[in-house]
Amino acid sequence: MASLFLRQPFKAAYLLGFFTVLVFIRLPYWLVYYSWRSNRPRKSWTLHRTINVQILRKVTRLPFQLGITDKRDLSLEVPQKKLESLNARFVWIPELEKRDLVGMVAEYAARAAVKSIAIPAYWILKEGTKWSPAYEKAQEDEKVILYFHGGGFLTGTAYPSHPTASLSKGLLKYSTSLSRVLSVDYRLSSGPPFGSENPFPSAVIDAVAAYRYLVCEAGFLPQNITVAGDSAGGNLALASVRYIVESRLPHLPPPGGLIASSPWTDMSYSHLETNSSHFLNSGSDIFDLPPNTHPLAVGENAINAYIGEMDRGETKYNRYLSPASKFVILPDVDGDNKLFSGFPRSYIIGGGAEHLFDDIVVLAEKMKDDGVDTTTDFPPDAVHDYPIFDWHEPERTESFIKCAAWLDERWATVAIAEQARG
Length: 422
Ligand SMILES: *[C@@H]1O[C@H](CO)[C@@H](O)[C@H](O)[C@H]1NC(C)=O
Ligand SMILES: *[C@@H]1O[C@H](CO)[C@@H](O)[C@H](O)[C@H]1NC(C)=O
Description:
Number of domains: 2
Protein name: Alpha/beta-hydrolase
Organism: Thelephora ganbajun (Ganba fungus)
Helix content: 25-40%
Bound molecules: 2-acetamido-2-deoxy-beta-D-glucopyranose
């Protein structure tokens, strides 16, 4: 049934009906119903925020339940003319060499018949900075962010006008040490009933290829690179840093930092007690489900697509998929079997109103327990991935300022005071 919507003219007809109902029926109803504060999912929310969340709850069904996505064709180069007004630059990331693909990830790649390929990426420049040929290489001591967008590994793009570019742009705006971000169009997965493509570890391989590009070709110092991502991109940031830390390739030392914003950290949902955020926040997050559906069903298509032919049980144990799972199997590196040994200083963002919140808290606690210098930012009434939504103020700008201060290794209070002074 669902796969019918993927074919024209059914897809166009469905979308037309979907948006007509949204605008002419749902929206007027919400405007009336939510004008009473007591009807809003969080009492602190404005009507504006409440309506935006309700709209997203319908829109996020398109990729996750109906397979309708906004993926781009990753074999096409984007002409520079189209990127000029976005102050961005297209770049090809070359494929990894065989010697760069080792250990557990190489084994999974062989099993899933996944190979490294060249993939597109975009340099997003700070406002006021112009691209120059000198930027083919790192400037002296230059700091940079390597960014992975969200979208459940099913949808989204690194294209600089996409909503997920907001976090990069926010950090560029408020950081004093950063002048550009490399945002990577890693391969997205698809799974039944929408055809199978690019399972794990395709995205991890692409992420590592981009890191190798920054270090070995553009000449950035690993300590000057911060690997970052939102949602599924946060999962990918954690997995690619894990690969770099665990594989100990002499030419690829670990990065200097990690930022994960609303990361997806447990594909087995092992913390699914009825008192958990998965249940308690199901009405206050950007994902909606038909009545009486288990909260787990939100990620169902995304998980099946990402794991491909792997056994579903793997999501419980595999540290590349589910680092926050209760049942994760620890690495054994020189007898030191801490989950986050060797990880760089890390910054974890999560919204207290999102259904993944408890998993994100578990992740941050595990990282701290393992001795990682971990900073957290958990605004209590924020939804999943709130820094990418321009209507999610003031939390969004406050988070940009605090995270940029962390990136610059300054105190957030100093940064906020500077901001207030203009
Ligand atoms: C880049 O890394 C080097 C070596 O760790 C460090 O001395 C320098 O301050 C870093 N650059 C920035 C802008 O932080
Ligand atoms: C949920 O309840 C269990 C025991 O019933 C408890 O161990 C756990 O900490 C609770 N979780 C939260 C998020 O309150």
